Amino acid sequence: MLLDNNIAAQSTLKKYVFPWLRLPFVFAGYLLAGPFLLLRLAKYLHASLPSIPDQPWLQWPGLIIAAVGGYLFLRAWLILAILGKEWPLRHPVLLVKRYIYSFHRHPMYLGYTAFWTGLALWRSSAGLFIMSLIFLAGWLGYVLLVEEPRLARRWGKKYLDYRRKTPLLWPRWSELTHGALKLNIFLLLTMVLMRWLFRLLWRVRVEGQEHVPDEGAFLLVCNHVNLADPFLVGLFLTREVKFMASDELFRKPILKLLFHWLWPAFPKRRWGKDVGALRQAQRMLAAGEPVGIFPEGARNWDGGPVTVGDEVYRFLHHCRVPILTATLIGGHEAFPRWAAWPARARITVRFFPPIKPDQATSHAELRTLAEERIFNCLTEPPVPRTAWRSHRGLPTVTWGCLKCGTPGMINAVKAGIVCRQCGAAWHVTPELRLVDAGSGEILSEREYHTQLRERLARGGIAGGLAIKSACHAFRVVEGKLIPIDRGMLSLDQTHLSFSGAKGILRMETAGIKFAFLNLRNHLVVTDNLQTLEFRLFDSKWVRFEDYLFAARQRQLSLRHPVEIAIANRIRQG
């Protein structure tokens, strides 16, 4: 046992501690030790060499060369950190051949040399110029005798083909700006900083990166359980993927700037078919660019999967490109939708082999293949939360008591949740499981929430399907919110009604095509005539959505089977 513990401790040190100890030495070598030695030795050489005359025709080109060299060094460093993975914490685990690495085989060394050469010309320092030439000869010898043979042994033919196509002595200038706008410096810096932040906060582990296609178009399809899902998946891809995102994210200037310029995404309306967004995705795929989609469209409040409509898989099947599937394990535990801040927990990003177009002959087969992968997280045990594990917002999901059937009486306490009506209590574990204080029965959030919904559908919740909430009503017109009024939103078994100072709006529950919670507390409802959005002012968000779903299902069950079939076809598009 002692030996096993020692081996485990050594493995932990090697995997998590030593790489971070290596990081300061890497930075110190490039940014401190290297400059110090170059400048120190250049000072001694400068005293014994003839000085370079101060000429503007040398100084200004030198400044430009230094700027270009600094850009090459920084861009090569960031590209290697993003696409090579693990670097500079460890040696790169993937061979990087694109972007600045198609310009030159060793752009980091080249940029470092160009920077000091340009600085020597700008400062008219003969000693620094000689030292930069010595550094050039040194790294050329190192890469030819040590680094390139090691890379050839590691990657074999793949690296030999790259070495044959990519120059060493004279760069391929036509490739200098390759991907400079799509994978710009600001995006690269953001990706590096966020990756380190996520590793510190959530100890992110990545599996299956080798399944990401090196070239060509593909669709990335992933489950949606965490607010940071696009970043968690995108940060650990080896290709730049542009995500299809809800148009609400583009309404605020800061988010619009983030998703349009810094983090590639394009908007899609959530309350209907957005033909323009679908065509944009097809144009990008036709141009060989990857596109990312979250089929669920929203995060579930209880950590379970959201039902995906057939139209999503029809579109995916119609595109006829490889589909790279991914799943996030531990994302819900790390940052539930009901939580005000994230908890510390391990997140695993798992990529699966791409689904080729000929593997699915119909959208139904594609659904089966895709969902057994993207919902693979449901087969894994829940991930424990190790720090900042507040469950204060949990009653948003556990809105009713399973013992007495009273809604709106669940409170969060330090150990778990308690019903104010009957005193029933459940202890909340680090894995977000609910343990009945009386019987010891263990339920997940999803199981607790499912039992509440089933009990509501059977009429076992006090008060039936009647519910009210103060709100602000909006009409959705071409993706824009048009304010209507502030008032009261109420639901009974047959109608959803809004009453305000300007009048009353009513919808038949059986005629509602779909309804969902958008953002945190925005209930979006659509029938055949209009789309309305209600910003609820209290904490009944999930409860109101559940009540509305139950009322719709009850009204549909009272209709003729032919009417039900027609309504379902309309709802599925």
Notable characteristics:
Four Helix Bundle (Hemerythrin (Met), subunit A); disordered N terminus; Glycerol-3-phosphate (1)-acyltransferase; 4 domains; 15 helices; seven-stranded antiparallel beta sheet; 573 residues; elongated; 19 strands
State the helicity in percent bands. Answer: 40-55%
Q: Any idea how many domains?
A: 4
Overall mean pLDDT score? 84
**What order do the strands of the largest sheet run in, or round the barrel if closed?**
1-7-6-2-5-3-4
Q: Count helical runs.
A: 15
Summarize the structure in words.
It contains 15 helices and 19 strands. The N and C termini lie far apart (60 Å). It is an alpha+beta fold. The longest helix has 47 residues, at 2-48. It has a 7-stranded mixed beta sheet. It has 4 domains: 2-175, Four Helix Bundle (Hemerythrin (Met), subunit A) (Up-down Bundle), CATH 1.20.120.1630; 202-379, Glycerol-3-phosphate (1)-acyltransferase; 394-457, no CATH class; 467-572, Pleckstrin-homology domain (PH domain)/Phosphotyrosine-binding domain (PTB) (PH-domain like), CATH 2.30.29. The chain has helices spanning 2-48, 56-83, 107-123, 126-155, 157-165, 185-202, 229-234, 253-262, 275-286, 310-319, 331-334, 363-374, 445-457, 541-557, 561-572, and strands spanning 205-207, 219-222, 242-246, 265-268, 291-293, 323-329, 348-351, 410-412, 416-419, 425-428, 433-436, 442-444, 467-477, 480-491, 495-500, 503-508, 514-518, 522-526, 531-536.
Summarize the SSE layout with pairings:
Layout: H1 2-48, H2 56-83, H3 107-123, H4 126-155, H5 157-165, H6 185-202, E1 205-207, E2 219-222, H7 229-234, E3 242-246, H8 253-262, E4 265-268, H9 275-286, E5 291-293, H10 310-319, E6 323-329, H11 331-334, E7 348-351, H12 363-374, E8 410-412, E9 416-419, E10 425-428, E11 433-436, E12 442-444, H13 445-457, E13 467-477, E14 480-491, E15 495-500, E16 503-508, E17 514-518, E18 522-526, E19 531-536, H14 541-557, H15 561-572
Parallel strand pairs: 1-7, 2-5, 2-6, 3-4, 3-5
Antiparallel strand pairs: 6-7, 8-9, 9-10, 10-11, 11-12, 13-14, 13-19, 14-15, 15-16, 17-18, 18-19
